[in-house]
Structures are given as C-alpha cells and as structure tokens.
Amino acid sequence: xxxxxxxxxGITHTFGSGTTAFTALHSVDAEIRRGELLLxxxxxxxxxxxxxxxxxxxxxxxxxxxxxxxxxxxDLSEDELGRxxxxxxxxxxxxxxxxxxxxxxxNVLVAFDLARSDIEAGRARARELLTLVGLEKRLDAxxxxxxxxxxxxxxxxxxxxxxxxxxxxxxxxxALDSENGLKAMELFRMLAHExxxxxxxxxxxxxxxxxxxRIVRLEDGRIVPPxxxxxxxxx
Amino acid sequence: xEGTGFGEAQFRRIPEAPPWQPRxxxxxxxxxxxxxxxxxxxxxTGIAFSTLLMGIQLGMLLNFLHTTSILxxxxxxxxxxxxxxxxxxDLATPLEERRRFxxxxxxxxxxxxxxxxxxxxxKRTDGVRETVIMIGINPExxxxxxxxxxxxxxxxxxxxxxxxxxxxxxxAEKLSVDSVGQLFEINDHRVRVAGFTSGIRxxxxxxxxxxxxxxxxxxxxxxxxxxxxxILVRVADGYSPDTVAKELSAHLPGADxxxxxxxxxxxxxxxxxxxxxxxxxxxxxxLALFVGVVIAAQTLYASTMDRLPEYATIRAMGGPRxxxxxxxxxxxxxxxxxxxLVGISITLVLVYLGRDSSASPEMTWWLALAIGIVIxxxxxxxxxxxxxxxTAIDPVKVFR
Lengths: 235, 400
Ligand SMILES: Nc1ncnc2c1ncn2[C@@H]1O[C@H](COP(=O)(O)OP(=O)(O)O)[C@@H](O)[C@H]1O
Ligand SMILES: [Mg+2]
Prior knowledge:
- The complex is a heterodimer.
- Chain A is an alpha/beta fold.
- Chain A has helices spanning about 50-55, 80-90, 105-115, 120-130, 150-160, 180-195; strands spanning about 5-15, 20-35, 35-40, 65-70, 70, 90, 165-170, 200, 215-220, 220-225.
- Chain A has a 6-stranded mixed sheet with strand order 6-7-8-3-9-10. In chain A, strands 2-1-4-5 form a 4-stranded antiparallel sheet, covered by helices on one side.
- The longest helix of chain A is centred in the C-terminal third of the chain and has 18 residues, at about 180-195.
- Chain A is globular.
- By secondary structure, chain B is an alpha+beta fold.
- Chain B has 2 domains: about 10-65 and about 275-400, no CATH class; about 85-255, no CATH class.
- Chain B is about 50% helix and about 15% strand.
- Chain B has helices at about 25-35, 35-65, 70-75, 100-105, 155-160, 215-220, 240-250, 260-275, 275-315, 320-355, 365-380, 385-390, 395-400, and strands at about 80-85, 110-125, 130-135, 165-170, 185, 190-195, 210, 230-235, 255-260.
- In chain B, helix 2 runs antiparallel to helix 9 (about 275-315) and helix 9 (about 275-315) runs parallel beside helix 12.
- Mean pLDDT of chain B is about 90; it is low at about 1-5.
- The interface between A and B is large, with 49 and 42 residues.
- Magnesium ion binds near residues 48 and 49 of chain A.
C-alpha cells in the first residue's frame, strides 16, 4: 500500500457558534492515495462536501490534523493554502463555473495563467487536455454552445491543467445523463490507474459504485462501515 | 485513451511565462467588458458623457482664464498704473492725467502712455443697442493697440482714420457689422468701421471696440476734461519692472502700480473667484465626474456580480485575490480608456465647430491628457465597490 498523499485524522468540523453551531463532521479519519479512485458517499447533508473541502485544503477543520505528504497544513495562511492548492490539486465542482465569454481552450488556459505558465505552451497543453477528454472538435466553442457533459469535461480539463497529483470532484455526475456520467467516471478512473493520480469523488450516484477502488461512507458526519465497501477492481 | 498521444508527459509542468508576457487577466477583463453589449454601451456612454462634460466645462474655464486678462496679456506693457483698488481690467475707474506726467519723471520709466477703457452703447443697424467696451489709445502708442488685425492692416492707420473703430469679426454679427466703412453710433457719436481683428474674445460678452484716444474721450461719459483709466508703462533698458513699480508706487500715492503679470492674475482671479463663474464651471466638471463614477461603478458592479461563481472557482483553484483584483481593475481602466476616447473625440469636434463663436471652450493637449488621467482615476475609484465584493468571496460557500 502506497503512502497517502493526503491523510486526515480526528477531523471534527463545526459551522457557526453558540446556539446556531452545527457539527458537520465528528472525529473522521480519511486518506487519499496515489493511483486510487476513492468515492465519498452518503445521504445528503452527511458531511461529504465538508470533508472534501477539508481534504482539499479549502477549509481548516475545527479540530484534527490534515497532512499533505506527511506535512501538517495547520499553520498555513490562506495565501499559502492557495499556493498549495494551485500546485497539488485539481477541482471539479458540480457547477462547472466556466467563464461564459471564454472558449473551452481559454477556460483551460486560465489554470495555466494562474500557475504563471507560458501562455503558448499552455495553449498547446490545453488542446491536448481537451483532446484527452474528447473535445478535440470543440476547442474554440463557448460554454453556451456546449452540452452539460461537454462543459463538465472542459472543467475536468481545467482541473488537470496544472498537472495535479490530487483530483477532487464534488458530485461531478449529478447533472449528467448516465452515459456521460459513466464516461466522466471512467476518465477519473483512468487518471488514477494509468497516471497514478489520487482521485476523490463525492457522489451518491449508485450507478458508478462499481468503478471505485475504495468507498468511504458518511452518515450524520460519521464514517459508517460500508457493506462490501472494498468491492471494485483494485490493482 | 490510446491513440490520443496522452501520457505522463502531459502532467509534467510546462515552462514558466517570461515576465513580459501579458497575463490572461487582460483578455478576461476585455471579454467581461464587451460580453454584455447593452452594458458595454451604457458604460461607454456614461464615461464618454462624463469626459465630454468635463472637457467642455474645463475648456470654458481655460477660455475664461485667457479672455479675462486678454487686454493685459496683449498690451505689451511692463507696468500698469490703475486707480486704487481696481479688481479687473474690464471694470476701470478714472485716473487723473497728471499721474502720467508724474510717472514719466520717475527713474527707470521709458514711456508712459494713456489708455482709456469705458462702456458705451453701440447702435446696431436695426436700432438695438449693444453694450461695448471702448478702448482709446493714441494712434502713435507703442502699447495697448489692437492686435491680430485682419489682412495685415496697420493699427496706426486704422486709428487715424476719421471716426475709425476696430472691432473683432467674432462679434460682427452681434454688432450687425458687414464690412469695413459701415457707419454706426456709439453713445450717439458717429463711428466708422475701419478694420477687424480676429480672435480677441471678451469674457463679459461686451465686445471690445478699439479707437483713438481722442475719439474715445469724445464719446465717453466722463466728468473729467481728459479722462483716462490706465497708464501703460514700459521700463527703460537695464531696469527691473519690480523695482520701477516700487519707485512709482512711492511717487503716486492713491494709485496702484501693478506688473502686467499681477494685473493679469488679478483680472483672472476676479472673474473666477469673486463672481461665481469659476465655481460654476468647476462644479459642472465635478458633477460630470460624479455622473461618470456612478455609471461606471454600476455597470462594473453588475458585471462583477455576474462573474462571482467563476471568480470563486479561481479562488478555490488557489488563485490569489490579486488575480481577481487585476481583472476588475483592468476592466474598469479599459472601459474608462475607451469611453474617454469617444468622449474626447466628441469634445474636440465640438471645440472645432465652436472655434468662431464668442464663447468657445479651448482644448490643449495637456488638458486632454489631464482629463484622461482623471477619468482613469475615476474608473479606479468606481471599481472599489466591486473590489470589495471580490475580496469577500468565500470559495467554500459557493460550492455547497
Ligand atoms: N456554512 C455552513 N454553515 C452551517 N452549516 C453548514 C454549512 N455548510 C454546511 N453546513 C451543514 O453541514 C452539513 C453537512 O453539509 P455538507 O458537507 O454540504 O453535506 P453533503 O455534501 O453530504 O450534502 C449539512 O447539514 C449542512 O447543512
Ligand atoms: Mg455536498
């Protein structure tokens, strides 16, 4: 078993304070490994997104420790966390949030520009990434001219732009039909298995369970032992 | 994914951008700006309007600054002796003729020439009377003569012609003058148009009418036998106007001795500050600026609100706040610059079209540049609200 890229232990997260305080996660342990597709599952409101944000260094937990390559991120400032995300993470959110007035290629290019990469090299790489996700014919299309599935794939290409070792997706298939949903999941799986990325996907889509290497189930902010959790074809 | 040529190489980092490479924020800002056509049009219109209004108001101010002291600036005198407490060249009060002889005795005075300025009523061909400002000087005078005469005429000849007056062609219509030789009346005295000047504007809108001192004295409403209102002094070579002015002041109690620069300044200040004229145009310009700020701020804010999810995504990806600031500010400045170009072009056309009217705004390259800078500063200020909105973005909240 490989070293976890991200390891979180004893994570408790409370939103708000006083009478309106709400604890979304209770002493949760979780980790993400290279070459593995991890599914975070559970009913709505169980804390999946919160956990993903904490694992993705978007949110400091109220309690507990998050280690990135064995290093605690606890003392990092907001800016330092940002740089960390830029370097190590790729995110795909349920809402694709593509710039409507930028083409598919330009939307991917934004990620290269954030990393201060050379624009021309970035443009060439953006085309390769869009080709990888099957959009080689829509390179110069605006989001308004793309289907949901295609927009989703632009968002995936953008998430891959900085060459992240960790890819995170929150309900990436929720807005897709089953065929496109499956395609997206197969892409994630390929990235984990063939390119050794660590991939974590939040979902409650039962159609894709069979693709997972490992499943973490949450209920009311606690991890519950899954029935047949390790099903799937682990290499 | 076989056959796509995609492999581990595609995960390798690509070279860093050279420092001179423009950031994508320019493209994003530009596309944001033009994405919504109506909003873009409103932004441009607002900023162009603001530029135009400011250009016209400040152009008028510039015109005021030049016209209020035009007589002093073109007289060619080193010093002006005036009645005590005079506030502007156009509102003259009488001075005794003996002052001139006293002045001539003072060391360092090369010449001291009489100058009479007073109001008169010009009777047009249709019988309507227009107020004019008569200026009387000796035909042989070396200072204070009309300048910029049309067709290269000699002022001495014009002033020597019987009943001759010189008016500016800007006011020909106002005075119902068609041609040289036409007869009119000022204060019931006969005058003959001897020639025209070009571009001698008056701030008071009462046209200047140059004539000989003798003729002017005959027409003036004056109690004195030989009225005059100013004495124009040229100092002798090797003397400084300031020293001679002090010396003259000492010899002429009850009169003011001013250098041309002081009198010019005093005349400008009077119209700008003592009357409401300066305040009016300046507040007009400030108002124009506010209109511009409000419109620019509104449209930029609306556009920023539309982009919040995308901006939040950039923050979630790890992009720094200053990346978003750069987009917003560039959007504001590019919009400002384009609006300015439209506005200043219209201003220049209007200034050109109005060049022959009696109160036309003036435009200089430095005023146009200054307005451009102010417009860009205004747009930067207009982006503050949007910047605040961008600062407050919490990427985590957006993705619930
Ligand atoms: N900012 C917040 N303030 C208060 N409560 C929140 C906040 N964000 C999430 N929650 C609550 O935390 C719980 C877990 O939320 P979330 O992690 O989004 O669940 P899931 O993704 O599994 O649907 C929910 O009950 C939600 O209402
Ligand atoms: Mg969720």
